[in-house]
Amino acid sequence: HMLSHHIEERGTLSYMELSDLGFEPKRMYYITGVPQGEVRGNHGHRTDLQYLICVKGQIRVTLTSKNEVETTMLDAGDMVFMDKMVWGEQEYMTGEDILLVLCSTSYDKSDYITDISEIVGA
Questions:
Q1: Rounded Cα–Cα distance for residues 40 and 46 (Å)
Q2: pTM for the predicted model, two decimal places
Q3: Would you state the pLDDT for residue 62?
Protein backbone atom coordinates (compact mmCIF):
# COMPACT_ATOMS: atom_id res chain seq x y z
CA HIS A 1 0.00 0.00 0.00
CA MET A 2 1.29 3.43 -0.85
CA LEU A 3 -0.06 6.88 -0.36
CA SER A 4 -1.39 8.62 -3.43
CA HIS A 5 -0.14 12.13 -4.17
CA HIS A 6 -1.96 14.94 -5.93
CA ILE A 7 0.84 17.34 -6.85
CA GLU A 8 0.27 20.86 -8.10
CA GLU A 9 1.99 24.23 -7.88
CA ARG A 10 0.16 25.26 -4.73
CA GLY A 11 1.23 22.13 -2.86
CA THR A 12 0.87 18.38 -2.55
CA LEU A 13 -2.09 16.50 -1.12
CA SER A 14 -1.12 12.99 0.03
CA TYR A 15 -3.95 10.59 0.81
CA MET A 16 -5.24 7.04 1.12
CA GLU A 17 -8.60 5.38 1.55
CA LEU A 18 -8.56 3.81 5.01
CA SER A 19 -10.63 0.94 3.61
CA ASP A 20 -7.52 -0.02 1.56
CA LEU A 21 -5.48 -0.79 4.69
CA GLY A 22 -6.77 -4.27 5.42
CA PHE A 23 -7.79 -3.24 8.94
CA GLU A 24 -9.79 -0.42 10.49
CA PRO A 25 -7.35 1.71 12.48
CA LYS A 26 -8.11 1.81 16.20
CA ARG A 27 -5.25 4.14 17.11
CA MET A 28 -2.81 6.56 15.53
CA TYR A 29 0.19 8.41 16.84
CA TYR A 30 3.07 10.39 15.46
CA ILE A 31 6.64 10.97 16.54
CA THR A 32 8.54 14.24 16.09
CA GLY A 33 11.62 15.92 17.50
CA VAL A 34 13.89 12.88 17.29
CA PRO A 35 17.57 13.85 17.05
CA GLN A 36 19.31 12.99 13.77
CA GLY A 37 20.64 9.42 13.83
CA GLU A 38 18.56 8.33 16.84
CA VAL A 39 16.99 4.86 16.66
CA ARG A 40 13.54 4.28 18.13
CA GLY A 41 11.13 1.39 18.19
CA ASN A 42 13.13 -1.63 19.29
CA HIS A 43 10.02 -3.68 19.99
CA GLY A 44 7.38 -5.78 18.31
CA HIS A 45 3.71 -6.61 18.84
CA ARG A 46 1.92 -9.89 19.42
CA THR A 47 -1.31 -8.87 17.64
CA ASP A 48 -1.08 -5.21 16.54
CA LEU A 49 -0.64 -4.50 12.82
CA GLN A 50 0.80 -1.13 11.85
CA TYR A 51 1.44 1.13 8.90
CA LEU A 52 4.46 3.40 9.36
CA ILE A 53 4.20 6.57 7.29
CA CYS A 54 6.96 9.12 6.82
CA VAL A 55 5.24 12.52 6.80
CA LYS A 56 8.48 14.55 6.71
CA GLY A 57 12.18 13.85 6.43
CA GLN A 58 13.68 10.41 5.91
CA ILE A 59 13.39 7.36 8.17
CA ARG A 60 15.18 4.02 7.77
CA VAL A 61 12.83 1.24 8.94
CA THR A 62 14.24 -2.20 9.73
CA LEU A 63 11.74 -5.04 10.19
CA THR A 64 13.04 -8.34 11.55
CA SER A 65 10.83 -11.44 11.41
CA LYS A 66 11.69 -15.04 12.20
CA ASN A 67 12.86 -15.61 8.63
CA GLU A 68 14.14 -12.30 7.26
CA VAL A 69 15.38 -8.77 7.86
CA GLU A 70 13.92 -6.08 5.60
CA THR A 71 15.24 -2.51 5.55
CA THR A 72 13.28 0.24 3.81
CA MET A 73 14.22 3.90 3.46
CA LEU A 74 11.06 5.97 3.79
CA ASP A 75 11.03 9.43 2.27
CA ALA A 76 8.16 11.85 2.88
CA GLY A 77 5.00 10.25 1.50
CA ASP A 78 6.28 6.66 1.76
CA MET A 79 4.83 3.99 4.01
CA VAL A 80 5.56 0.41 5.06
CA PHE A 81 3.44 -2.31 6.69
CA MET A 82 4.64 -3.85 9.97
CA ASP A 83 3.03 -7.20 10.70
CA LYS A 84 2.53 -8.77 14.12
CA MET A 85 5.47 -10.78 15.50
CA VAL A 86 7.95 -8.48 13.73
CA TRP A 87 10.69 -6.49 15.49
CA GLY A 88 10.73 -2.88 14.34
CA GLU A 89 13.49 -0.26 14.47
CA GLN A 90 13.31 3.23 13.00
CA GLU A 91 16.39 5.41 12.43
CA TYR A 92 15.61 9.10 12.05
CA MET A 93 17.90 10.46 9.35
CA THR A 94 17.44 14.25 9.26
CA GLY A 95 16.48 15.45 12.75
CA GLU A 96 13.32 16.99 11.22
CA ASP A 97 11.49 13.72 10.65
CA ILE A 98 7.83 12.97 11.37
CA LEU A 99 6.62 9.36 11.60
CA LEU A 100 2.86 8.71 11.61
CA VAL A 101 1.67 5.25 12.69
CA LEU A 102 -1.75 3.69 12.12
CA CYS A 103 -2.51 0.73 14.44
CA SER A 104 -5.03 -2.08 14.19
CA THR A 105 -5.52 -2.27 17.97
CA SER A 106 -5.94 0.09 20.89
CA TYR A 107 -2.95 0.53 23.21
CA ASP A 108 -2.26 -2.56 25.30
CA LYS A 109 1.05 -2.77 27.16
CA SER A 110 0.85 -6.59 27.21
CA ASP A 111 0.89 -6.65 23.37
CA TYR A 112 4.46 -5.29 23.29
CA ILE A 113 7.40 -7.65 22.71
CA THR A 114 10.56 -6.20 24.25
CA ASP A 115 12.89 -9.18 23.73
CA ILE A 116 13.75 -9.88 20.08
CA SER A 117 14.39 -13.55 20.88
CA GLU A 118 10.62 -13.99 21.29
CA ILE A 119 10.36 -13.21 17.55
CA VAL A 120 13.50 -14.71 16.02
CA GLY A 121 13.92 -17.59 18.47
CA ALA A 122 16.50 -18.08 21.19
A1: 18
A2: 0.93
A3: 98
